[in-house]
Specification:
Blueprint lengths: L8 E4 L5 H12 L3 E6 L3 H13 L4 E5 L5 H15 L4 E4 L15 H29 L2 E6 L3 H4 L6 H21 L4 E8 L2 E2 L1 H6 L2 H8 L8 E2 H12 L10 E4 L7
Parallel strand pairs: 1-2, 1-4, 2-3, 4-5, 5-6, 6-9, 7-8
Helix pairs in contact: 1-2, 1-9, 3-4, 4-6
Amino acid sequence: MPRNAMERVALVTGASLGIGAATALEFGRRGYAVAVHFNASEHEALGVVSAVEARGGVAAALRADLSEPAACRQLVKDTLDRFGRIDTLVNNAGSLIDRRSLAEIDLEYWNASMNLNLGSMLWVTQAAAPHMRERGSGTVVNLGSIAGHNGGGPGAILYATSKAAVTGLTKALAKELVKDGIRVNAVNPGVILTPFHERFSSADRMREMVSQIPQGRAGQAVEVAGVIAFLASEAASHVVGESVEVNGGMLMD
């Protein structure tokens, strides 16, 4: 028997910072036990766990390198061992890794980008789906990006490519899994104020991107988290295979 068999459990990958951290906190606020996945940012992940617990919730930090399929399967096993179930999977883990021009892309960089940004979604979902299927219910929310529509900024060729593929993966998974009571959808954030842009976007680049947003400002991670939580909720019970744009009007699709 798991140490804490919970009524509802959310596994959020890449949950130590930014949108992932905000999403973990949002699910905790909604009464879910939260598996807070991280790879390198252990201190930050433990901070998210503490924040959930401070609000009376239950959470645990789980480490895994999701560029490896075996680690994806182990993360799901660890979550089930810890909490006994997975009701919602949020596939948020991903990174630009590095800005590179076409001439600078090599096979190692290709594999790193695709394994993390796309492969992790496939392998974690593959591992979680049998458990959800057995229970006859579950929700999966994949994180894409506006870059999947517009090609991203300079040096983001592989990031944009992987995020464009998230849309196709989401629809294909949704078609296969819906008969088992599992709903799969995606969220495509625009320019969101997170450590992602602190690392990969200069101040000038940020000003340029924000100037293209009709709403006149960048988004907050909590605004994306709210949409993710909605897609996982009963309020979205008839929403299947959709990709929701969260970008302040920067792209109206």
